[in-house]
Amino acid sequence: MVMQAGQMDAVILSIIIGTLAAIVYCLRVLVIMERRVARMDENIVRITERIFREELKIEREERKLETKFGAKKKR
Question: If DSSP codes are grouped into helix, strand and coil, which group holds residue 48?
Fold first, then answer.
């Protein structure tokens, strides 16, 4: 069975369209993954800032206690 020129063109066009659809789908998945990673980065930044604020509170409390009880500074 030999394909005619019109049939061959249709097969090649179908392959090209299928390949383009696969590329578009992969790009869509890539964008979705990038957004997820960006959200994770934002959450990590927020958690880090929260920990930093807690550390500052702890250091302030330590200084208060050191001055109150006259403890020697460890620096």
Answer: helix
